[in-house]
Structures are given as structure tokens and as C-alpha cells.
Design a protein that fits this description.
The protein is mainly alpha-helical and about 100 residues long. Helices cover about 85% and strands about 0% of the residues. The chain is built from three helices and no strands. This is DUF2516 family protein.
């Protein structure tokens, strides 16, 4: 049962991390097409390390779910941490560049 819970949490963490990566990619693409997009592109470049690290940690947590109960608990801890980091970073980025509308 703990294996199933750990796997679900790890998958949710991976989805959160990929959501952050995808949002950064969209911002970078839009900044590249815009004449005054250099500050946004620079901001996105500064956030890639965080997004990549959180994604790697989430994938590692998902990999750990194939082990025993101790590894499942470790996977849950890592997945919750990286997922929360991804969600907080995504919300921060969205708040910074939210357009009124």
C-alpha cells in the first residue's frame, strides 16, 4: 500500500516540476519573439537550474518507489520537497509576469 502512495506522490511531483519547466519554456519563447523581452529571458535563464534540479529530484523519487518500504518513505519525502519547491517557484514566476486582463 505504501508503494502505491509513494508512486502517486512521485508522479504528482514530476507533473508539478514539468509544469514549471513548461511555463519557463513558454515564457522564454515569448520573450524571444518580443523586442523588449531580454529581461524576461534573463530571468528565465536564472530559473532553469531550480526547475531542472526539482525535476531531477522528482524523477529520482519516482525511481526510488521501486524499492522497499524504507525507499518508499524516502521517495515520499523527496517527492513532497521537490513538488512543493516546483509549485512555489511556478507561483512566484506567474505572479511576477501575470498580465492583467
Amino acid at each position: 500500500m505504501i508503494d502505491l502512495i509513494a508512486t502517486i506522490i512521485a508522479i504528482a511531483s514530476v507533473l508539478a516540476a514539468l509544469g514549471h519547466v513548461g511555463y519557463l519554456a513558454l515564457l522564454n519563447n515569448a520573450a524571444g519573439k518580443r523586442a523588449g523581452g531580454a529581461p524576461v529571458a534573463q530571468y528565465v535563464r536564472s530559473r532553469w537550474a531550480l526547475a531542472g534540479g526539482a525535476t531531477a529530484a522528482s524523477l529520482f523519487a519516482w525511481l526510488l518507489t521501486s524499492g522497499n518500504v524504507v525507499l518508499d518513505v524516502l521517495a515520499i519525502v523527496i517527492a513532497v520537497g521537490s513538488g512543493a519547491t516546483s509549485v512555489k517557484a511556478l507561483q512566484s514566476t506567474q505572479a511576477k509576469y501575470r498580465s492583467g486582463g
